[in-house]
Amino acid sequence: MFIRAYLRASTQEQNADRAKESLIQFAEQHGHRIAAFYTENISGATLHRPELMRLIAESGEGDIVLVEQIDRLARLKQKDWDTLKQKLNAKRLSIVSPELPTSWLALDRKDETGFTDSILQAVNSMMLDMLAAVARKDYEDRRRRQSQGIGKAKAEGKYRGRQPDIKRRQHVASLLRTGHSYSEIQEILGCSRHLIASVAKEQRQSEAA
């Protein structure tokens, strides 16, 4: 059994690695080490996530998928959530999260083919379905409130759209000019490669002008 940690942030500007240390500590508290990390900045509302699919593909039967919160996996519509569960169940992968105590038993499973394991899987599946439904509703509620707020701001002539983080982009540009690599900049600023590539493209266009 290997533990594979999945780290996800909703936008390109967020740092998905912020939960890494807490998951390492959680695994150690239960006497385990994390075998691999899979990190991406993609919305949890979509099933098409390359790193999540790579995690599933590389997992062996009975491995554990460790996530900070269930909504890191499950802001999906019901059809997509059912598809993801089928992929996980095909390899008997267990989802474990610090926020879901019933899932912790998977870290100390001693009766993997017997009655205890069947009960564990049934209870955890029910809890996961409930948390997935809550995560999806929360996502849809926030999107609706955001849409209403934008509509009101537009009606009042106050909507400016999402503004770029000028200060962070300036920091990225400065580090690029001094020869730092993308990985070094990510480590220093905790930003995404997408942001670094965007700033690098602006620099090239500016130099070519």
Automatic annotation (TrEMBL):
<dbReference type="InterPro" id="IPR006118">
    <property type="entry name" value="Recombinase_CS"/>
</dbReference>
<feature type="compositionally biased region" description="Basic and acidic residues">
    <location>
        <begin position="153"/>
        <end position="166"/>
    </location>
</feature>
<feature type="active site" description="O-(5'-phospho-DNA)-serine intermediate">
    <location>
        <position position="10"/>
    </location>
</feature>
<feature type="region of interest" description="Disordered">
    <location>
        <begin position="140"/>
        <end position="166"/>
    </location>
</feature>
<dbReference type="GO" id="GO:0000150">
    <property type="term" value="F:DNA strand exchange activity"/>
</dbReference>
<keyword id="KW-0238">DNA-binding</keyword>
<dbReference type="Pfam" id="PF00239">
    <property type="entry name" value="Resolvase"/>
</dbReference>
<keyword id="KW-0233">DNA recombination</keyword>
<dbReference type="InterPro" id="IPR036162">
    <property type="entry name" value="Resolvase-like_N_sf"/>
</dbReference>
<dbReference type="InterPro" id="IPR050639">
    <property type="entry name" value="SSR_resolvase"/>
</dbReference>
<dbReference type="GO" id="GO:0015074">
    <property type="term" value="P:DNA integration"/>
</dbReference>
<keyword id="KW-0229">DNA integration</keyword>
<feature type="domain" description="Resolvase/invertase-type recombinase catalytic">
    <location>
        <begin position="2"/>
        <end position="157"/>
    </location>
</feature>
<dbReference type="GO" id="GO:0003677">
    <property type="term" value="F:DNA binding"/>
</dbReference>
<dbReference type="InterPro" id="IPR006119">
    <property type="entry name" value="Resolv_N"/>
</dbReference>
<protein>
    <submittedName>
        <fullName>Resolvase</fullName>
    </submittedName>
</protein>
